[in-house]
Structure to design on (115 residues):
């Protein structure tokens, strides 16, 4: 219940405050399809924040699709493929529409922290 409440608060804040207009405009200009595969856990505060934001973005931009897997599944299925020693969460893989890896961000990327 605590984790669900935290996510609900972040979601409500996003819905009431919105995103900066420049970011909203950038999202609206996306023409290609992107798939975001996220490894995360409900107990992780960074996951709560980032997943609420990614969900908000996918609702604003239908060309973005979001899928979430557990840290354990990522460790079993992705750690070796991505040549990672461990799976830090949240781990977001940015894929094209054919599921080719385009990029990733891990935990608290500086670009996100800087706005």
């Amino acid at each position: 219940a605590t984790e669900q409440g935290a996510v609900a608060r972040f979601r409500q804040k996003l819905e009431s405050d919105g995103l900066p207009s420049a970011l909203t405009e950038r999202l609206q200009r996306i023409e290609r399809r992107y798939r975001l595969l996220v490894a995360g856990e409900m107990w992780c505060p960074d996951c709560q924040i980032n997943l609420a934001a990614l969900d908000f973005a996918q609702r604003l931009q239908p060309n973005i699709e979001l899928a979430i897997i557990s840290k354990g599944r990522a460790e079993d299925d992705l750690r070796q493929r991505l040549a990672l020693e461990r799976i830090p969460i949240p781990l977001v893989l940015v894929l094209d529409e054919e599921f080719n890896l385009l990029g990733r961000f891990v935990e608290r990327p500086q670009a996100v922290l800087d706005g």
In short: The mean pLDDT is 89. Residues 2-17 form the longest helix (16 residues). The first strand starts at residue 34 and ends at 39.
